[in-house]
C-alpha cells in the first residue's frame, strides 16, 4: 500500500490482506517479548490536530512494537497554534525524515490532501478526518466481528469475509466518520448494514448509499435480526444545533438499555468505538456484558494498526489503498 486514506475505495482483497496480517500480529502479541524488528530504522509521526486517547495510544503502541521510532505531534502547544499551515508542517516532517505520517485532522479530506500534495514522501494513514472517514477503526471493528462470529483464533477467521452478517449501527450518524468507514468496509466484505437514528442525525445522502435507513431502534432489532449492534457516541462537540429534544428522550428511543439488551438474539454482539456516554447511548449493563466487545476492540486496534503500518512502510509501497 502507498497510503491508507479511506475504506470506500479499499478493495476487498486489500481489506482481507490487512485483516489476515493483523491475525499474524495478534499472534505475536501473545509472546513474552512482543516487539518485532520489522520497522527498525523507520520513523512514524503521529500528527494529531484533534484530541484522542485510544487512537493515538494505539498507533504509538503499534509502531513501537514494530520497533519504529515514534514522534508524537499535538497541534496544541505547537506552531500550528501560531498559524502554521499543513503544508509547512508537512515540509518540516519531510525535513526530519518521516517515513510514515498518521494524521487526525478536523478537516474532511486533509489526509488525502497531504498524500497527494507532493509536500512529503511519507506514507499517509488517516486516523480520522472531520466527519469523513476513520479507516483503521472500521478495520479493527471488522477484525473483532470476524473473531467473535467465526472463531477467536487464526484458523477460525483467516481469509473470512463477513458475507451474510447483519450489522445495525445506531446513533449520531450525521457526524460519525466511524459509521461511514464501517458502512463501506462492511459492505465490501459482504455484510448488510442498517443505519438507525432520528431523521436529524441521519447522514445527508444516506438513502442513496447501500444501507437500510431506519428511525426506530426497536424496529431494526426486530426486523434486521442483527449479528452486531454498534452504538455510537453523541458528538456534542460537533453539534451547533438541537438535533433532539433532550438526552432522556434520546436514551429512551435510541439507547441500548437493559431491556433491549435482554431481548437481543443470543448470538448478537454489542460494539462501541468509545468513548462511551453511559446511560445515554448505552447502559452500563450493555457496556459491561459478555456480549460487549468494547475492550476487545481496543486490544485488537493495536494488532490492526500494526498490520497497517507494516504493509504501509515495509518494502516497496506501490499502490494507493
From TrEMBL:
<feature type="binding site">
    <location>
        <position position="54"/>
    </location>
    <ligand>
        <name>carbamoyl phosphate</name>
    </ligand>
</feature>
<feature type="binding site">
    <location>
        <position position="82"/>
    </location>
    <ligand>
        <name>L-aspartate</name>
    </ligand>
</feature>
<feature type="binding site">
    <location>
        <position position="275"/>
    </location>
    <ligand>
        <name>carbamoyl phosphate</name>
    </ligand>
</feature>
<dbReference type="GO" id="GO:0006207">
    <property type="term" value="P:'de novo' pyrimidine nucleobase biosynthetic process"/>
</dbReference>
<dbReference type="Pfam" id="PF02729">
    <property type="entry name" value="OTCace_N"/>
</dbReference>
<feature type="domain" description="Aspartate/ornithine carbamoyltransferase Asp/Orn-binding">
    <location>
        <begin position="164"/>
        <end position="312"/>
    </location>
</feature>
<feature type="binding site">
    <location>
        <position position="137"/>
    </location>
    <ligand>
        <name>carbamoyl phosphate</name>
    </ligand>
</feature>
<keyword id="KW-0665">Pyrimidine biosynthesis</keyword>
<dbReference type="InterPro" id="IPR006132">
    <property type="entry name" value="Asp/Orn_carbamoyltranf_P-bd"/>
</dbReference>
<comment type="similarity">
    <text>Belongs to the aspartate/ornithine carbamoyltransferase superfamily. ATCase family.</text>
</comment>
<feature type="binding site">
    <location>
        <position position="233"/>
    </location>
    <ligand>
        <name>L-aspartate</name>
    </ligand>
</feature>
<dbReference type="GO" id="GO:0006520">
    <property type="term" value="P:amino acid metabolic process"/>
</dbReference>
<feature type="binding site">
    <location>
        <position position="274"/>
    </location>
    <ligand>
        <name>carbamoyl phosphate</name>
    </ligand>
</feature>
<dbReference type="GO" id="GO:0044205">
    <property type="term" value="P:'de novo' UMP biosynthetic process"/>
</dbReference>
<feature type="domain" description="Aspartate/ornithine carbamoyltransferase carbamoyl-P binding">
    <location>
        <begin position="2"/>
        <end position="146"/>
    </location>
</feature>
<feature type="binding site">
    <location>
        <position position="55"/>
    </location>
    <ligand>
        <name>carbamoyl phosphate</name>
    </ligand>
</feature>
<feature type="binding site">
    <location>
        <position position="177"/>
    </location>
    <ligand>
        <name>L-aspartate</name>
    </ligand>
</feature>
<feature type="binding site">
    <location>
        <position position="134"/>
    </location>
    <ligand>
        <name>carbamoyl phosphate</name>
    </ligand>
</feature>
<protein>
    <recommendedName>
        <fullName>Aspartate carbamoyltransferase</fullName>
        <ecNumber>2.1.3.2</ecNumber>
    </recommendedName>
</protein>
<keyword id="KW-0808">Transferase</keyword>
<comment type="subunit">
    <text>Heterododecamer (2C3:3R2) of six catalytic PyrB chains organized as two trimers (C3), and six regulatory PyrI chains organized as three dimers (R2).</text>
</comment>
<dbReference type="InterPro" id="IPR002082">
    <property type="entry name" value="Asp_carbamoyltransf"/>
</dbReference>
<comment type="function">
    <text>Catalyzes the condensation of carbamoyl phosphate and aspartate to form carbamoyl aspartate and inorganic phosphate, the committed step in the de novo pyrimidine nucleotide biosynthesis pathway.</text>
</comment>
<feature type="binding site">
    <location>
        <position position="104"/>
    </location>
    <ligand>
        <name>carbamoyl phosphate</name>
    </ligand>
</feature>
<comment type="pathway">
    <text>Pyrimidine metabolism; UMP biosynthesis via de novo pathway; (S)-dihydroorotate from bicarbonate: step 2/3.</text>
</comment>
<dbReference type="Pfam" id="PF00185">
    <property type="entry name" value="OTCace"/>
</dbReference>
<dbReference type="InterPro" id="IPR006131">
    <property type="entry name" value="Asp_carbamoyltransf_Asp/Orn-bd"/>
</dbReference>
<dbReference type="GO" id="GO:0005829">
    <property type="term" value="C:cytosol"/>
</dbReference>
<dbReference type="InterPro" id="IPR006130">
    <property type="entry name" value="Asp/Orn_carbamoylTrfase"/>
</dbReference>
<dbReference type="GO" id="GO:0004070">
    <property type="term" value="F:aspartate carbamoyltransferase activity"/>
</dbReference>
<dbReference type="GO" id="GO:0016597">
    <property type="term" value="F:amino acid binding"/>
</dbReference>
Amino acid at each position: 500500500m502507498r497510503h491508507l486514506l479511506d475504506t470506500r475505495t479499499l478493495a476487498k482483497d486489500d481489506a482481507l490482506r490487512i485483516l489476515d496480517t493483523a491475525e499474524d500480529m495478534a499472534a505475536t502479541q501473545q509472546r513474552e517479548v512482543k516487539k518485532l524488528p520489522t520497522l527498525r530504522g523507520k520513523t512514524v509521526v503521529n500528527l494529531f490536530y484533534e484530541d484522542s486517547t485510544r487512537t493515538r495510544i494505539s498507533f504509538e503502541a503499534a509502531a513501537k512494537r514494530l520497533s519504529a521510532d515514534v514522534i508524537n505531534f499535538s497541534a496544541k502547544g505547537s506552531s500550528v497554534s501560531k498559524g502554521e499551515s499543513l503544508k509547512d508542517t508537512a515540509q518540516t516532517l519531510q525535513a526530519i525524515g518521516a517515513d510514515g505520517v498518521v494524521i487526525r485532522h478536523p478537516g474532511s479530506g486533509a489526509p488525502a490532501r497531504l498524500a497527494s500534495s507532493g509536500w512529503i514522501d511519507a506514507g499517509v494513514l488517516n486516523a480520522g478526518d472531520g466527519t469523513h472517514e476513520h479507516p483503521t477503526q472500521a478495520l479493527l471493528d471488522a477484525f473483532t466481528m470476524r473473531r467473535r462470529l467465526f472463531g477467536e483464533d487464526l484458523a477460525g477467521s483467516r481469509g473470512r469475509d463477513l458475507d451474510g452478517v447483519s450489522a445495525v449501527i445506531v446513533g449520531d450518524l450525521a457526524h460519525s466518520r466511524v459509521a461511514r468507514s464501517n458502512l463501506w468496509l462492511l459492505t465490501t466484505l459482504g455484510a448488510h448494514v442498517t443505519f438507525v437514528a432520528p431523521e436529524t442525525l441521519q447522514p445527508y445522502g444516506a438513502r442513496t448509499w447501500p444501507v437500510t435507513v431506519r428511525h426506530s431502534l426497536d424496529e431494526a432489532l426486530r426486523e434486521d435480526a442483527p449479528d452486531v449492534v454498534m452504538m455510537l457516541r453523541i458528538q456534542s462537540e460537533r453539534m451547533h444545533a438541537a438535533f433532539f429534544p433532550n438526552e432522556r428522550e434520546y436514551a429512551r428511543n435510541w439507547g441500548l438499555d437493559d431491556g433491549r439488551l435482554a431481548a437481543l438474539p443470543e448470538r448478537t454482539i454489542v460494539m462501541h468505538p468509545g468513548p462511551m456516554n453511559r446511560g445515554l447511548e448505552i447502559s452500563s449493563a450493555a457496556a459491561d456484558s459478555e456480549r460487549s466487545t468494547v475492550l476487545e476492540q481496543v486490544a485488537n486496534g493495536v494488532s490492526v494498526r500494526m498490520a497497517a503500518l507494516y504493509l504501509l512502510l515495509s518494502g516497496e509501497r506501490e499502490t494507493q489503498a
